Write a sequence for this structure.
C-alpha cells in the first residue's frame, strides 16, 4: 500500500504522517521552550521542514506513489528482458559453435567454459544428493534406535538344530 503524500506550496513532498510528526514536534518545542514566545510568533507558524518556508499550503497527492510503482515495474521488466536476452544469446552462441562457426581457439575456449560450468553444476547436484542420502540414512538409524528402545534388541536365531 502506498502512503498518501502531501505536496506543499514550496513544492516539497512528504508523507502525510511524516509532515504531521514534524508539525507536532515543532509545536511541542515552541510550547515548551524556556523563552517566552508570543502566541502568533514565527515559532507557532507552520514551516516546511526542508526550506523553512512559513505559512505553506498543502495538498494530498498520490502522484509520487504512482511514479514509484511505474519505476519498479520498469525495473522488473528490464530484469526479465535481460534474463531472456542472455538465455537467447547463450543458445545462439551454442548453435553457432556447434555449426563450426568461429576459429578453432575460440571454439575450444567456449567448449572448455561450457564443460567447466557443467562440471560445477554436476558437483552441486551431487552435493545436494549426498545431503539427501545422508538425511535418509540418519532418519533410518534414528527409527532403528527407537525400535530397539521400544522392543528391545533383536533376538539372534540359533544355528543349532
Amino acid at each position: 500500500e502506498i502512503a498518501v503524500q502531501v505536496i506543499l506550496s514550496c513544492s516539497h513532498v512528504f508523507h502525510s504522517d511524516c509532515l504531521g510528526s514534524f508539525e507536532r514536534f515543532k509545536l511541542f518545542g515552541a510550547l515548551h521552550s524556556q523563552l517566552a514566545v508570543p502566541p502568533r510568533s514565527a515559532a507557532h507558524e507552520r514551516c516546511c521542514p526542508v526550506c523553512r518556508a512559513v505559512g505553506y499550503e498543502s495538498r494530498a497527492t498520490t502522484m509520487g506513489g504512482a511514479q514509484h510503482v511505474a519505476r519498479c515495474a520498469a525495473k522488473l521488466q528490464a530484469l526479465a528482458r535481460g534474463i531472456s536476452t542472455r538465455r537467447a544469446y547463450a543458445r545462439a552462441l551454442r548453435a553457432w559453435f556447434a555449426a563450426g562457426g568461429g576459429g578453432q581457439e575460440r571454439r575450444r575456449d567456449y567448449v572448455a567454459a561450457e564443460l567447466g560450468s557443467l562440471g560445477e553444476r554436476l558437483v552441486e547436484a551431487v552435493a545436494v544428493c549426498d545431503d539427501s542420502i545422508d538425511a535418509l540414512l540418519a532418519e533410518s538409524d534414528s527409527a532403528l534406535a527407537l525400535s530397539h528402545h521400544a522392543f528391545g534388541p533383536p533376538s539372534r536365531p540359533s544355528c543349532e538344530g
User: Anything to note?
Assistant: Strands lie at 5-8, 13-15, 58-61.
